Amino acid sequence: MNYNQTLEFLFQSLPAFETKGATAYKPGLERIAAFCRHLGNPQRNFFTIHVAGTNGKGSVSHIIASVLQQAGYRTGLFTSPHLQDFRERIRVDGEMIPKQKVVNFVDKHHDKMVELDLSFFEMTTAMAFDYFAQSEVEVAVIETGLGGRLDATNVIVPILSIITNIGLEHTTLLGDTLQKIAAEKAGIIKKSIPVVIGESDVRYNSVIEQAAAANKSKVVYAEQVFTCEEHRIEGESQLFRLRRTRDGHEFDVELDLQGNYQVHNVITASAAVDFLHEETPLTISRRAYIEGMRCAAANTSLMGRWQTLGREPLTVCDTGHNAHGIAYVAEQLKSTPHRELYCVMGFVRDKDLAHILPLLPRDAHYIFTQAHSERALPADELTAKAAIYGLQGEAVGDVKAAVARARELAAAEDMIFIGGSTYVVAEAL
Fold this sequence. Notes:
UDP-N-acetylmuramoyl-L-alanine:D-glutamate ligase, Protein-Tyrosine Phosphatase, Chain A, 2 domains, 8-stranded mixed sheet, 6-stranded mixed sheet, 18 helices, 17 strands, 41% helix
C-alpha cells in the first residue's frame, strides 16, 4: 500500500471517532494491551507524561514537549485530532512521523490490527509508542483521546499525570455530571504516581482526591504552585509574570500562543515542569523552561489556538468546541477590539448546543457552515437551532465558501472568527 491507501485503510476499515462519532468509541484496554504485547510493549522504553482534561490538554502537552526539547531530551509528542495531516498526531522533537513509517507499520501489523478489531485511535496510539521506541525517544508527552480511564493511552505508567480541567463534554460516553466525568479523567491516576490538577474546582476536586488517595498518589494543584501576577499581549506573543508560591521566586515568561485562556495552561505546564525537575529523574533548567515556553508553537507546530489568519479584517480561528472552551472564546471575542463581528461557525451533530449557543455573542452576524465530515451538523439545521437563542445569520454549506462570504461582508476594522468545530478550523486552515 502507498501512503494514501494506508490512510484510507485506517480511516475506513478501523472505526474512527472523527468520522463515526460515539459508535467508534471502544472503551476498555484489553485490545490495546494485547496489541502492545504483540509489538513488544514499546511504551515501556521511555518516560511518559500523561495529559487528560476537557480543554487545554493539547496546549499543555505541546508546551511541556517544547520545554523538554529545549532541555535536550529526545521528546515524543502524541496528540489528537489532527488539523491538516494525520502525521501531526505523532512527532519526535517537533518533526512529524515520516509517511513511510506509517505505511511500514500498517503493512507489518495489518493482520493483527484486523484480528484484534482495533479502533482507529487504538491503532494510532500503538503506532506512536512503536515509533517513539524506534526513534530512541527519552520522554514522551501523551495526550488522552477521550476520557481517561478506558482511553487507549491509559496502558502507560507515566512519571506524572496531569488533568487540566473538567467540563461537560461527551456526556453520553463519560457521564452527565462533572463528578462522573472527573471520575473518568481521574482514571489515568496510577499507583504512587503524582497528578497535577490545572484548574481546581470545588465541584470535582474531591472526586480526583479520592482517586488519588486510593492509589496513594500525591495531588498537586497548579494554582497553589504558581500564580500569575501580570499578563499582557505584545505582538504575536503573550507575556506573563509568574510567582512560585514556595519561595516567592518570579519568572517572566513569554509564550508564542495567543488566547487569554492560555494563562491557565501556562500555570498548569509550569507546575508540571517544576515537579518534573524537582521530583523525577528529569533535569530542566530555568533557561530550558523559559525558551521552551517562548517557542512552544514554533517547536511543536501547534495550530488553531486563537490563531491569527489575517489582518484588516482581523481574522482568528480557535478549536474550542465544547461549552467550557466556547466560554473562553466568547470572553476573548468580547475583549478584542473590533467594529462588526462575523462568526463562521459549524458543529458536529453530537454537541450539546443547548449549553453552547447561549454563550455566543448575539450582536454578531453568523455564517453557519458544515465541514466535510459525516458527523457535521447540516448548516441549515444549525441556523434554525441558533435562531432559537437569538443568533442571526445565514447558512453557507461549505467552509471555504463561508469564510469567503465573511471576507466579502467584513470591512477592514471588523473581525472574523472561525470556529465551533475542529473540522471547521481544519478546513479554514
